[in-house]
Amino acid sequence: MSKKKESDVIIGVFEYLRKTNRPYSANDILNNLKKEHGKTAITKALETLAADRKIMEKTYGKQKVYVMIQDGETYTNDQLSEMDTEIDILKENLAKLNQELKILNDEISHFKNKMSVDELKTAIIELTEKNEENDKLLDSLKNSKQIIFNTDPITVTKEERTKINQNYIY
């Protein structure tokens, strides 16, 4: 393999590991790079990067796992306390926003449960028609000279009458 091709593989593998920032085996990298390079070339590139201390190699049984070396930034106590303060402020803002969201969602559900203007108009028309029918029936019953009798009288026993009288509020 030419030096140029070899360096392309090394750069490609390094950039992939840097971009994903998680551990991979050589087979995982081969599959994730859609087999752009051969397994041997990827394995050599990983070993070269590990030897140059650009990535870390860890062996688990027969399998080797490769991961980027984290360049841990060090922060002073003042910087850490500033970050903690900023985190607390952001948490408070998040809580306020979540509460506002809940209120707005409640309003939305409240309005969804209400009838629309068109539904209200049709309900008014239906109720008006029913009211007119009932008025006509009432007028006909008022003007009618016919007396309506219950043909099947209800008999109430003495016990039922006392029970009704006890429950009746005067």
From TrEMBL:
<dbReference type="GO" id="GO:0007129">
    <property type="term" value="P:homologous chromosome pairing at meiosis"/>
</dbReference>
<dbReference type="InterPro" id="IPR036388">
    <property type="entry name" value="WH-like_DNA-bd_sf"/>
</dbReference>
<keyword id="KW-0539">Nucleus</keyword>
<comment type="similarity">
    <text>Belongs to the HOP2 family.</text>
</comment>
<protein>
    <submittedName>
        <fullName>Homologous-pairing protein 2 homolog (Trinotate prediction)</fullName>
    </submittedName>
</protein>
<feature type="coiled-coil region">
    <location>
        <begin position="80"/>
        <end position="147"/>
    </location>
</feature>
<keyword id="KW-0233">DNA recombination</keyword>
<dbReference type="GO" id="GO:0120230">
    <property type="term" value="F:recombinase activator activity"/>
</dbReference>
<dbReference type="GO" id="GO:0000794">
    <property type="term" value="C:condensed nuclear chromosome"/>
</dbReference>
<dbReference type="GO" id="GO:0003690">
    <property type="term" value="F:double-stranded DNA binding"/>
</dbReference>
<dbReference type="GO" id="GO:0010774">
    <property type="term" value="P:meiotic strand invasion involved in reciprocal meiotic recombination"/>
</dbReference>
<feature type="domain" description="Homologous-pairing protein 2 winged helix">
    <location>
        <begin position="13"/>
        <end position="68"/>
    </location>
</feature>
<dbReference type="GO" id="GO:0120231">
    <property type="term" value="C:DNA recombinase auxiliary factor complex"/>
</dbReference>
<keyword id="KW-0175">Coiled coil</keyword>
<dbReference type="InterPro" id="IPR010776">
    <property type="entry name" value="Hop2_WH_dom"/>
</dbReference>
<dbReference type="GO" id="GO:0000709">
    <property type="term" value="P:meiotic joint molecule formation"/>
</dbReference>
<dbReference type="Pfam" id="PF07106">
    <property type="entry name" value="WHD_TBPIP"/>
</dbReference>
<keyword id="KW-0469">Meiosis</keyword>
